[in-house]
Amino acid sequence: MTEPLLDVDGLQVSFATEDGLVRAVDGVSFTLDRGEVVAIVGESGSGKSVTVMTLMGLTRSPNARFAGSARLRGGDLITASEEELERVRGQEIAMIFQDPISSLSPVMRIGNQIAEQIRAHEKVSKSEALDRAAGLMERVGIPRARDRLRAYPHEFSGGMRQRVMIAMALSLSPSVLIADEPTTALDVTIQAQILKEITQLSRESNSGVIFVTHDLGVVADVADRVLVMYSGRLVEQGTVDEIFYDPQHPYTWGLMGSITRVDRDPPRRLPAIPGAPPSLLRVPEGCHFRPRCPHAFDRCREVPPLEPRLAGAPDHLDRCWLSTEDKRVKREVGGRIGLATGDVIK
Amino acid sequence: MTDDSQPQGDQGAQEDPASPAASGSPLLQAEHVQLYFPIKYGVLIDRTVGVVHAVDDVSLSLPEGQTLGIVGESGCGKSTLARCMVRLLEPTDGTLRFRGRDITHLGRRPLQPFRREVQLVFQDPSSSLNPRKRVGQIVAAPLQVQGMGRDAARARVRDLLDRVGLNPEHVNRFPHEFSGGQRQRIGVARALAVNPKLIVLDEPVSALDVSVQAQVINLLDDLQDDLGLSYVFIAHDLSVVRHVSDQIAVMYLGKIMELSPAAELYSKPIHPYTSALLAAIPIPDPKENRTRERRVISGEPPNPVNPPAGCRFHTRCPWSTKVCTEVEPPLAEYPGGHLAACHHPRNVSSAEIAAATRSPLSPLSSAQLLPAGVEEAPASGTGSQVAATAGGLAERPDEEP
Predict the structure, then answer these.
(1) Is A194 on the interface with B (CB under 8 A)?
(2) Average pLDDT over every residue of A195-205
(3) In this predicted complex, what is the ipTM?
């Protein structure tokens, strides 16, 4: 096996606040290869966005503390200087944000916004950069791209704005593309178009994609591997098939159980995960999921390590003390995978 | 959702009370409701330069105790329609009836008893709750408007919070001290305060995490069973709508494209737009997702200022022919109270097409012309419903010149 494209090892991000230290990301490790799509799933507040924003150097602030490393082509993104980061951002690693309207400048023409990024990294003339911008816009499926170089973001629909974001992210052919909930604000028909665009373009350029989302349908659609995050920690990771057909962590069961599907008759009641994620200021000791987990027992007061627990699946890791047989029995709820809780509200 | 009514998942829920033809006395009825927003131009002289056809000739009826789902892309007019239904907006044309009484143009005072019976829950709980009021004050506000005394209101608020699964001890907290799901519960508690019969839910779970979505949907489910509520449930997420609705209306550019008993919409979508919406949704099952061939419709909805002539969907429809560009299809009624406005219906047999009648809910502007037959869909007769649903739309057939 060759060296991975991106190697994140023991990443920790914490923020000092007036109320105490918030451990937003608590020891996250994973790798990303070329041509691979890795999805990070979890609820809001699980630290998935903070993880990817840290890779982009966007969480640096006086109250932030970092530990661990994120190696991209030999350089470490965590300890890199601002100048190094500026060179790497856009060129090596680029990001598509959730909300295109707040990530584009409202007072600058679309063409100039894309061209600006190209010119920040390469010595090209303005007209040349604009030419390339038009080419990129065409590539992501914006019709009449050349005419629309002079348009402002407000003249575009949500889907078209997201395409502009993708065009910008791809402008310098980065090797790592991060997409943070890129389709959450869009309609399903447009979402389907955008997902197709992102996966196709990344395959063409053979880059690695980190896809942050809470939509398991999207995960099943685009991902090769899945990381499940809960309360700042990875609780399970594996290939998309391992996670969907043989999930090992109760939190993953809960996620699987609570989704509604269009292609199945709905169950009478949706199995919800009881309770809410813990505040990051007061995380429970041991397994973070313990207070919400119906299968918790004494040993869960101790933090389970993230390690392979299944014979024959060395890359399927999870953080749960239950035995494999126990898990197999306990995750079956009414013929499907879920968290057996009955109906706890609160 | 109301388990005492029709069995779900069954083909053609027979004598479905939701079927508009069969309904006795619906709770809320919309007849050819239209809402146009004028586009004004000029500073001193207010010239109207055009109109946005937000809701265009929509007829619906909601039987008591049931849930009507309304789905469609953003900008299709689903929220505007909901706002019309609760009379936050006054329709430009058409009639709205609540328990048979015309409420279309009632003023503020005569509307007050109606307001007590109809409440609204909004999409974003953090912007629909006043951040400077305590939860107790927020939930008590509708009670005070209706003239309830302080002590009585206080007791009622505690009941309500308990009812929606919040700790009644938290009456003195501010909205920001709650999580997203809890805030949405506060919104529901406020809507419940005046004992309404109908709650209009405008994307009530779209802003929530999946696990929390399930909690809120289950809560809404329980409340409906216990209190006999009727819901109008607006969403762009077809999988959530399926779970809660008895009947679903699919809207596109201000018009209803398809109106169907909930389960049937998914097993047997008649309108190509519905199939397109279904095909666009990723299934949370990697293997099925890989095998299912998905045809993604291209483009975006046209501008509602100047909607296309004929069928509004024809610009994006893979089946459109000449007739679609010229003649607006009426809502044809198929077996089981399944309505669709399309010249080239999918998933119906020739016999069903021959038996189809023009529904009285059809827009006034639509033609008398009913679909002629299953012409160019040899592959997707009734036999291959599942394949047609999962596959979504087939390749665009050669268009007539």
Answers:
(1) no
(2) 86
(3) 0.80
